[in-house]
Amino acid sequence: AMQKNEPKTELIMSRLTPIQTNGATSELKRSLGNSHMKLAEAPRFLQIMANSPASLRAYIRADAALLRGQLTPRQRQQVALAVAEINGSNYGLSAHYDAGKSLGLTQEEMQLARNATATDPKAETMLRFTQAVVLQRGDVSDGDFQALRNAGFTDAEVVEIVANIAL
Predict the structure, then answer these.
(1) Contact at 8 Å (CB) between 132 and 141?
(2) N or C: which end of the chain has fewer CB within 10 A?
């Protein structure tokens, strides 16, 4: 059963049919090939996204670009866990727990990230900002922003936090 607070995108996605490998176009297979992932092994939401090769390519390319950014893979997973928790996304939590585990995040670190906290003060500042951006739809206070500055985040890192929230 759908949770009452489940995001609308998950409600939409649950009504669509996943595309399996044999239904994918050659262009789509190329996109997945570049990400070292086969469609049949891809998470369900990517299989559903494959209904629109353009959307799937956009997601894969955005993810690949942010992977080469200034935030660490661990920071990206912490942000993703905080966002998934706020959105009530069971799929997102599951996928990002798996990814976090593979990056060496502990169960405790991932549980803290879900609650927008961390034992590391810089990570906690990033997660509190993430929470503020999501809950306040980008209308963050000067204090929220100044906390990032005080923690040493650069303009590039702030932009990447927001980009990872959007992704």
Answers:
(1) yes
(2) N
Burial call 20-34: b when 16+ CB within 10 Å, e when fewer: eeeebeeebeebbee
Q: Is the pLDDT of residue 4 over 90?
A: no
Query: Is 52 or 46 the better-scoring residue by pLDDT?
Result: 52
H or E stretch covering 105: none
Tell me how crowded residue 131 is: count the other CB atoms within 10 A of its CB: 21
Q: Which residues contact 34 (CB under 8 A, 6 or more apart)?
A: 60, 64
pLDDT at 29: 64
Residue 33 CB contacts under 8 Å (≥ 6 apart), including other chains: none
Give the separation between CA 76 and CA 61, rounded to whole angstroms: 16
DSSP label at 71? Answer: S
Q: Torsions phi, psi of 137, nearest 5? A: 50, 45
Distant-in-sequence, close-in-space partners of 100: CB < 8 Å, separation ≥ 6: 74, 77, 78, 81, 109, 110, 113
Total-model pTM:
0.81
pLDDT in tens, 56-79: 889 888 999 999 999 999 999 999
The pLDDT of residue 130 is 97
Q: Phi, psi (5° rounding) for residue 45?
A: -65, -30
Tokens representing 30 are: 């190329």
